[in-house]
Every structure is written in C-alpha cells, then in structure tokens.
Amino acid sequence: MSNERPDDELETLFDADIDREPTPRSQRLKRQFDLYVVAPARVAMTDWRAVVGTAIITIFFLMGTVGVWLVDRPTSGDAPVLEPPFQNPNYILGTDTFGQPIGAQLIHATPDMFRMVFAGAVVSVGFAALVGILSGFLRGSKIDTILMSITDIIITIPGLPLVIVLIAIFQPRDPYVIGVLLGLDNWPGLARTVRSQVLSIREESYVEASQIMGVSTGTILRRDVLAQLMPYITVNSALASRRIIFESVGLYFLGILPFTTFNWGVMMNIAYEGQALSRPDMYHFLAFPLLTIFLMSFGLVLFSQGMDSVFNVRLRARHSSTIDDDGGPEP
Amino acid sequence: MQGNYFAKRVGQALLTFFATVTLTFVLYQMMPGGPAQALRNQILAQQMGSSNTISPEQIEQLVENYTNLESDAPIYVQYFQYMSSVFLEFDLGESLYEDATVTSLLAERLPWSMLISVYAMVIGYTVSIVLGAVMAFKEKSRFDSVSSVVVIGLNSTPYYVAGILFIFFFSIRYQFFPTGGRVGLGIEEGFNLAFMQSIALHAALPILSMSVLGLGTALTMRGNSVRVLGEDYLRVAELRGLRNSRIATQYVGRNAILPMYTQFMIGIAGVLSSSVIVEEIFSYPGVGLLVYDAIQVRNYPVLMGSLIVFTLVTIVAILIADLTYGFIDPRISAGGNNE
Questions:
Q1: CB pairs under 8 A between A and B
Q2: Which residue of A173, A314, B3, B158 sits 20 to 30 Å from the alpha carbon of B150, by its own alpha carbon?
Q3: pTM assigned to the model
Q4: What range does the record give for the signal peptide (chain B) (predicted)?
C-alpha cells in the first residue's frame, strides 16, 4: 500500500491546483474496501490460524446476538438441579445447583462480555495509538518527553492491584465502565511500541516527500502513519481483548467485581465455592465456563497471530487484483 | 554517559514512586464521601456488633491513625502530611481490622509472595526461552508445529484456570500436593529438612500456575531466533569454524534474547499483580491474599498500602534489571535511548 501514497498526495495537490474532477466517492470506497477487507481476507484464507480464529470469534459473536434471542434467559428452577450434561436435549450442557441450564447462562453472559471487551479495547488501543503517534511524530520535543515519562510511570504501576483498588472503591456494575477500568492499565506498553513504529515510518521517503510538499502534519499522520499502523493496531486489539477477558473473568471469579448478570466468572465462582472440585456431580458446572474462556481466548490469540502473518506478508498487492490502477510494482 | 544513564533511571524510579503515592492520596480523596466518610462507615459497621458507642472525635482520631489523613485540614496540608508520613516515616497507616500497622502486615507477607513470583518468573521464562530456541532450530519440523499449537493453547489458558486444574488433578485426585497454606501443620519452623520440604510442596502449585503467564514468550523467542538464524554474521561464524555451542549461546541466544527485554520488564509487574488471584485460589497467605481479604471487608489502608508496596517492588526490580542490562548490551548504556 505504500506505493499508492505519494500518488495520492500528488493527486490532491493537482486537484487543488487544476480543479480536476476528483475520484468519485463510490470508487474510492470500493478501493478502500478492496485494500483493507477483500485482499487481507483472501490472504487470511490461506492461513489456518486466521481461519480458525475468525471462526471461533464468529461463533461467539453469533452466541451474543442471535443466541440471546433464540435461547430464553434462564431463571432458577427452570429445570431439575444438577442435571448431568449430554443427557437431556433441553439442557445439553446440564444444569447448575439452582436448576438453571448452563448452556443458556453461557450464552446470556456473552453480550456483556463483548461490551466489556469493546470498551476496554477502544480505551487501551485508542490511548496507545494517540500517545504513541503523537510522541513519535514530535520526537525530541517537550510533549514527547512528557508523554513518554507518563507512559513509563504507568507501565511500572502494577495494573491489576490498581484496578482492584478502583473496583473496591467504586464497585462498578456497568460492563462498559469495567471494560474502561481494565483497559486503563493496558495502553502504556503498546504506546511505546507504536511510538517506535512511528519513528521508523517517519524515516520513510514518502513521508519526507509529503513534508517537503507542505502537507499538513494532521494529514500526514492520518493518511500515511495511521494507515501503516492499522495492521499493528488490529493485532493488538485482539490481544488487548484477550487480556480484558482474562482479567474480568478472574475478578468475577474471585467475587471482587459485584455480581450483576450472568458471567462466566460468576458461574465459576458459584461452582468453585460449592466445592465443585471434589463433587463429580458438579464437574460440568465448573468445566464449561472454563472451556468457554479458553476457547474465546484461543480464538483471539489465533486471530491475532493469523492477522499478524497476513499483514506482514508482502503478498497483499498481488491479491488485490480488483484494483485496476494499483498495479504498479512493489517498491 | 554511564553516570548520566544511571542518574536518569534512578530519577525516573523516584518520580514513579512519587506519582504512585500521589495517586493513592487522590484515590483516598475520590472515595465516595471522602476518606473520612468512607472510613466512618467502615468503623461504624465494625462497631455494630459490640455495645460500646464511639464519639465523632474518636472517629476523627481513628481516621487519622488509619490513613495518615487529617480530614478537616485543607487538602494541600493533608497531601503534605500524607506524603511526609509515607516517605519520611515509612508509615502506611494502620489496618482497620487487626491491631497492626500496614507496614508490618506487608513485611510479614511479602517474602512468601516474592518466593512464588521469582520462581514463577524464572521457570516460565527459562522454559519458554529454551523451548523457543529449540523450535526455531527445528523450524517447520513436526516438533515445531506441534509445540506452536501447544504454546498457543497454554497461552490461551488463564493462569487461574491452570491453577484450578492443577488443584483438581494434583491435590484432589492424586494428592501429590497440599490444597492450601504455606507450610504443613505441626512442622517445626527453622532450618530443617521437613520444614523446607513442606515450603516447597506448598509453593509448587502456585509457582507452576503462575509460570503459565510467561509461556507466551516462547513464540517471541522462536521468532527472534528464526530471524537471527538468517543473519549474515551467523554464516561468518560458521565459516570461521566456531564450535556449535558457542554459536548457539553467544551468537543466536544472546541476540535473540535481547529484544525480549521489555516484555520481561512488564512481566515482573504482571507476575506480582497476579498473586492476588493465584494466592486466593491456593489460599497461600502472601501479599495477594492479604489484598484479597482487605477487599472483602473494605480495609482501605491495607489496600492502598499494598498498592504502594507492589509498585515499590516493581520499580526496584525494573531498576535493577535496567541497570544490569547495560552490562549485557553495551548499545543501551552507550545510547541510553532504547527505542
């Protein structure tokens, strides 16, 4: 994609000067779509990790949207208590000590999980990108020094204890707030890496060319730097999501976060407190939430690794054959 | 240049610690209704059972003892007092529930947590560095692909899930290890074999489950080694007829491990933080369990004190790592600018 940028800049320059007809919006959107969605998807199909990861995430997504709508919200006494799994087709995964089907609970826990992950990933990755890009681009300036000192300070403060203290004081119940809190300790490491990426992109000749041509810093940041960073940011969003799932489920499991709705961690807590480890009739109550968390983070890790190889491979230009005016050789 | 770097790092560490203590002060102030009100509620809740009543002046006095905050003074005075008591007197306040200072509670528990976290770090990182290197040497073999999947799988297992499974298989099913505590009952304390054995047995499972945290490093190590293996200087080394062991350790190993340094730094903080969850699962009485118990009863002074001490330990660990790193990689101490 790097070879397209200088042309684009020239094009805009000429647009301004000669008042030429600009590329139609639909055409531009189609190109963007090809570049960012179709081409990576084609490459991704060849990487088993990306395929499996995407499949797992899609299944969870369906659970959280269609599943919630298809399966009734469980209430206590719906079914016999501690029904073993794979016996009754009505509750395939068995039931818990309150007679609630476990499968339905797992499904109804998904939407809140997604809310948490969404808020956390947006906060951590957004913050990291903002700080990293800004300080990388203003390298050596006062702002850079200040931002990096703050980043170094927050890297050092142990995140989980801080989050725990915040939770203990404020007792958040809203999944978005929990996500934001968990995302807060996540950004500094990423910000540092983004900064070093920006530093190396800055040295690229096309960015220098844009600067000489007098393109504003904002435009350069948006069109050149951010575009190059997108793959990196995608991969890290997946990893940040995994971390937020780990931590939130862990904190629910310990009973540190106040129990509000269904949650995999809450289920684990109830099962664990009920001595599920030494009661064979309760094994499934503990095992299925464990398996669910494992699967979800397995999917996210696979996805991030698959995407990493997709973005790193320089094959993308070859695959984006639908773009007719992007046929130039790779530099 | 060396001295400059040293001064910069130490200064940064001090600044970080200062920022953390300020942060705990801000957190106290942010508590619903302010620290006095929040603690008053706690003290009243605690007094509910007993018949003796408590006057507002006594509460004021207690709040000041517990938190080092004089709640009716202006904020900047409070801030100054709080900072000076933490920095000059090493006084983190008093526990609301036990008759003990936060500092003594933490000092008693900290060595036990350090024992687990240090071993967990060492085991996790050693295993993953060796594994990653072997995977890289056998790139594209069956061993490589199988262990990649295994590592990704382990990496997707939260350490507390690993802990639960360990307890289930090793403590409940087969009873190799005890389910909780840090030493067996009725064992004489001191420098004797039974005591040592008991400590090791009790610490084994928490250490194992925490070392799962570091395993993701194996893939990073694999990637780094694969990249180093393709470098020209390695071919030169081979052509010079250097021994394989020397190539493996000094050429490949060293250059592959160096980029993992930052990850290792952040790992220190991560392992220590995770002790809250791991120690609760194994009911291992370290700092983590202290924090957990403090949350259950809203023992704010203990919570805030632990946050400060956790940060202090992390800062010191990172500082040591940072300063010794200069000896391993001359580029860092020369430039002092590790981008």
A1: 120
A2: A314
A3: 0.81
A4: none
